[in-house]
Amino acid sequence: MSITLVSAGFLLASALAAAPQDAPATAGPDLGGSITVGGVEIPEAEIKRFIIYGPARPALEYHRINALIHDQIKRCVDGFEDELANWKAITESGADAGPEPTPVDPASYEVSDEEFQKLFDKKISEFTDKYPEETTGLRVETEIARTYRSIEWYRRELRQEIQFDKVFIHDNTDNWPDLTFEALRAEAGEILIKDFQDSYERRRLDHETRLAEWKLKVEADDPQAGPEPEIMPEDSMYRSILRQMVRDTVYKVVDSRTAVDGLPMDMICTMDFDWDEKPELSLTTDQMWSMVASTVSAVEIDSARHFLALIEATRQRLGAEKKLMTEEESLAKFEEIKAGFQSAMFNLGTIAIGAHQFPSVESYADYVPLFESYKASMKPQIEGTAEDGLPAVLRSHLDRANQVMGLAKVDAEVLLVSAFDFGDFSWKAKGWEDAKTKAQWLKSEIEKNNADYAAFRTKRMEAAAKGEEYTPDSDVVEPHAFWSELINTHCEFWDPPPPEIGRQSAVAYKQLGRFGERTRNDLRSLMNESAYVNFLRGGLVTDEIFFEQPIGTVAGPFKGPWGYYLTKVVSRTPPTRPLNMNDERHLELLRDDWYRISFIDYAHEAMANAE
């Protein structure tokens, strides 16, 4: 779902989970050359495609949606001839055919510069009123880039939204194409259509009332008349939901293909609207790369290279062990999974990108056949009957699964030394190197203070045993107080400033890494980690904290999404709703969790052993 950033106050907290960008470069970044794994070459074109389908996806979607818009405009224009022929036939029969159809003017769907600028200025004004730069330090261009990669991308998407609504979701449903009605009926019957019609009628009547009042003031030369009132716009979030429904419906009736559908490496996307095998839209990998390259960061390139190498190494291991599904079996399995998601609001992307946070459905499609191959090969080991109850691998996994699904909690504090400048939304020069050096220094200072405090306590106890009082030569700080001061001084987790107008949820706020009691999945979210990051890196800082770290200790530094982390566990709460192994549903949850976690180890063993 595409949410207008400015109108939503830039969704600052949630936007932090998005992939950050380096400042645009004048030329494309260095992709590092091809990757060779076990004698198989992964060319740079695959790295480009991974990034285009993933973090740079908005550029691809812009062109795909443009194609939808202009195809529908053409259909409206071409459809006039059929409508006119029907009207003439009815009229000639002597029946009342109503007024003669009016030709569709393609220009009526265009967005004027004035129309666009008016909306753009309004949204920028809404943001600057809510977050004045002089008091919050937030710059409009930077905050737009958090979600849209650049202000230029935001401007073109905003213009496209206006045109999309003119074509598909006009305020007056009399102007809707049949496809819009079909899309909304498929989701919720007539409910959404009636809601939209009722909303428009309320807004229309409100406008008439305000317009009449304004005219009276103008006639009376009232200086308070102000500008002519306009009809209130539909709720932006509601419109966004409707747009997504319509887009997904159109994609289903168009022959739209990406890598998931077998396009060759040099192609990114094709769209064939009349199914004549002659695509109206064809975008090559190099064409799209030239449009997005200047926005791509080194971190995105590193992630793409690592993912592609990891996938290839895992594929080779499964093949060597004769566990890999055939291409036909893989396609059938992926189609089976896709078929389980028919709703526009709950589709494969909801799981792949939303829940697991893969960069794209295409990257998820690379992962799924390998995971399903591994799963099929391991089923006999964990789903066969065992005389002593659970198979050994599930018994050893049960405690971990209980902590996650049984809602155990940990109260953790995390000190981030960041390689990323959150305020400026860019990676720091030498950021990773400097962050590692500083984190190691902080850890050494903690260890030195711990040793000093332990020595101080020993001497104080020895003195007390003699009935004496020990006074150290210099101040010694209690370890937790020392840790707290380090967090206050050095932690670089960033929270957006509160708005000056209205309220904003602080649910996702980092609070300098003082997270409080959290379930594992809540903590993972606050750490900006995910199932995808777990697969990519072979582990999470979150899991080190949640499952491994003793209470009261400071551990690390660990390398994570934004830099290096020092972590402290304050307390733990045991599971409140442990799994019941007599319930087949709970047993299936345990199996699924074991499959996912053990596959990560399997894949990274393959990577470590690959040439």
Quickly list its features:
single chain, 611 residues, alpha+beta, 5 domains, 56% helix, globular
Overview of the molecule:
The protein has 611 residues and is of the alpha+beta class. The protein folds into five domains: 1-20 and 105-168, no CATH class; 172-253; 254-295, no CATH class; 298-407 and 582-611, no CATH class; 409-498 and 505-573, Chitinase A, domain 3, CATH 3.10.50. It is 56% helix and 9% strand. The protein has helices spanning 12-15, 44-53, 57-92, 113-130, 133-136, 140-148, 151-168, 178-188, 191-219, 236-253, 285-292, 298-320, 327-339, 348-355, 361-383, 392-405, 431-465, 479-490, 520-526, 531-537, 541-548, 584-609, and strands at 35-37, 40-42, 255-257, 267-272, 281-284, 409-418, 420-421, 426-427, 514-518, 554-559, 563-573. A four-stranded antiparallel beta sheet has the order 9-6-11-10, with helices on both faces. Strands 3-4-5 form a three-stranded antiparallel beta sheet. Strand 10 and strand 11 (563-573) form a beta hairpin. Helix 8 (178-188) crosses helix 10 and helix 20 packs parallel to helix 22. The longest helix is centred in the N-terminal third of the chain and has 36 residues, at 57-92.
